[in-house]
Amino acid sequence: MVVYLDVLFAINALMDGATLLAAAALGGVRIGRIRWLTAAALGGGYAVLAATVPLLAALPLRVFAGIGLCAAAFGGKPAFGRVCALYFVVAASFAGLATALGAATGRKLLFGAGYYIAVPFRVLLLAAAAGYALSGILLRGDALHGPLRREVERLTIRFEGRACEVRLLHDTGNSLAEPISGRPVLVLGREAACRLLSEQVRRAWAETTDAAACLAALPPETASRFGVLPYRAVGVESGLLLYFRPDGVQRANGTALDCVCAVGPDGIGQGAYDGLIGV
């Protein structure tokens, strides 16, 4: 089979770029355009080198090459280990589907350490689309909230003489900010918030789940530490959250986080975490 190196480079840069995007989407990680293009180009270059020097296509070197691509695309991110694992899962899904489609059509889709189109381009696109869909169906929930998760952060919150350690999930969709100061908002589950709130506040909250009514029921000296903020969520057109200004929030590495804390719904995180953080 005649293999054109420029075509080999272009195809594998495209496939590595799609694999990196799929891993980022599954893991809820943002990838910069420059880093993505650089990693995709490195993937195409490796495929060309492996085609000219077959020794480079050995499995251990392919694994190291994949880690290198992930480092180029996601290096320095807290979720690097998780998204790197997702990259290999998605890449394996793509390769498996390409092998199956090649066997079904009697053509060859894989060459050396990469892909090469020996069938119509639409067949390769079908393999990529099917691999992305399959990995999304099988892994989307587990990737974000399962054993591979590395996006839960421990914080210590202090408020009116009480301290509580909480586990918060990084949620890129949480862009809430305090209306006055613009400080980011941590959304705590009801149980975690009650560990910090006084009996007086818990009693007022038990009498009504309406944030504005709860705030109005608090005495002025207590209400000065609280407020309400509007929010929108899936299935909820609009609403109000009761929030309070903590004495301090400390990250696990000892640094302080300037934020406010809102009281969210019951059962948030279903026991896997105590709330959401968007910073």
Overall morphology: elongated
Described by its quaternary structure, the protein is single chain
Quote the average pLDDT: 78
Roughly how many Å is the radius of gyration? 25 Å
Sheet with the most strands?
A: 8 strands, mixed
**Number of DSSP-assigned strands:** 10
Strand content: 15-25%
| Helix count from the secondary structure assignment | 9
Question: How are the strands of the largest sheet arranged?
Answer: 6-7-9-5-10-4-3-8
3D architecture notes:
The structure is a single chain. The protein has helices at 5-27, 33-52, 59-74, 80-105, 121-145, 190-194, 199-207, 211-217, 220-223, and strands at residues 110-111, 114-115, 152-159, 162-170, 185-188, 226-233, 236-244, 248-251, 260-263, 275-277. The chain has 279 residues and is of the alpha+beta class. The strands form two sheets. An eight-stranded mixed sheet has the order 6-7-9-5-10-4-3-8. Helix 7 (199-207) packs across helix 8 (211-217). The radius of gyration is 25 Å and the shape is elongated.
